[in-house]
Amino acid sequence: MKINPPKINHIEKENLLNAYQKEEFANFHFTENIDDAIVIENHTFDSCIFDRINFSHIELSHVDLVDVIFDGCDLSNKNFDEQPITRILFKNCKIIGTSFIQSSIKDVCFENCMMQYVNFANAKLNQVSFDNCTLMDTTFLENEIKNITFSHTKLQGSEFLQTKLKGVDFSTCDISLTSFDFFSLKGIIIDQFQCQHLIGMLGVSVRE
Questions:
Q1: Per the confidence metrics, is the pTM higher than 0.90?
Q2: What percentage of residues in the chain have a pLDDT greater than 90?
Q3: Which of 2, 10, 72, 208 is the most exposed, fewest CB within 10 Å of its CB?
Q4: Which of 175, 192, 171, 113 shows the shortest CA–CA distance to 140?
Q5: Who contacts 38 (Cβ-Cβ below 8 Å, separation ≥6)?
Q6: Section 51-57 average pLDDT
Q7: What is the pLDDT of residues 174-192, one digit of tens each?
Q8: Residue 76 gets which letter from DSSP?
């Protein structure tokens, strides 16, 4: 599966507080954290790199993401509900408790990210990959999915409900304690060692 990467050409290093004061969030490379509590509302992060930025003091409200790289950032408990998220790379990020409810997520890579308790309910995911992520206790509910991959990802305690997963390969992932309803389970790809967990979900016992 080919995922279109972020389109980032000419960017300049900028202080995040300066960008906030100017209300400009395009074509910048941010490397300095800010300690002041701020609210960024009704803006688009466009063609930007956020390098080890901690968003703990930054409230994001109705922020669109287009052509952005988040490298080593803390985006825990942020809200991206109902927002378009297009051509984004999340690399080595902390994304715990973050909400993507009803978001439109396209051409997005999550690499080496901590993503416990994330909520993807009712989100549309098209051309999305999760590579070597900790995706435990995460909710996938009534998702529209097209071309999604999970590679070497921990999914313990997560749930997939009313989400068509036919052809999705979980064979390199840890799906122990992962919940699938019958609709979501149909057609998934697993390895022989994962069968026992899924058989147990169906209430079937295997006599040795």
A1: yes
A2: 79
A3: 208
A4: 175
A5: 17, 20, 57, 58, 59
A6: 95
A7: 998 898 998 998 899 888 7
A8: T
pLDDT at 198: 72
Q: What is the mean pLDDT of residues 151-165?
A: 96
Contact 125, 104 (CB under 8 A): no
Average pLDDT over residues 162-173: 94
The per-type count for the chain, helices as H runs and strands as E runs, is 3, 13
Query: Which of 1, 27, 30 has its CA nearest to residue 126?
Result: 1
Distance CA 136, CA 153 (A): 9
pLDDT at residue number 192: 74
Helix spans in the chain (H) = 16-22, 182-185, 195-201
Domains and CATH numbers, the chain: 12-201 (2.160.20.80)
* Residue whose C-alpha is closest to residue 109's, from 204, 3, 29: 3
As a whole number of angstroms, the distance between CA 190 and CA 30 comes to 41
- Asked if the model's pLDDT at residue 82 lies above 70, the reply is yes
Task: Note the residue count of the chain.
Answer: 208
CA distance 187 to 170: 11
How distant is the alpha carbon of residue 162 from its chain centre?
A: 19
Q: Measuring CA to CA, which residue among 127, 70, 138 is closest to residue 104?
A: 127
Contact (CB, 8 A) for 26 and 46: yes
Dihedral pair phi/psi, residue 101, rounded to 5°: -60, 130
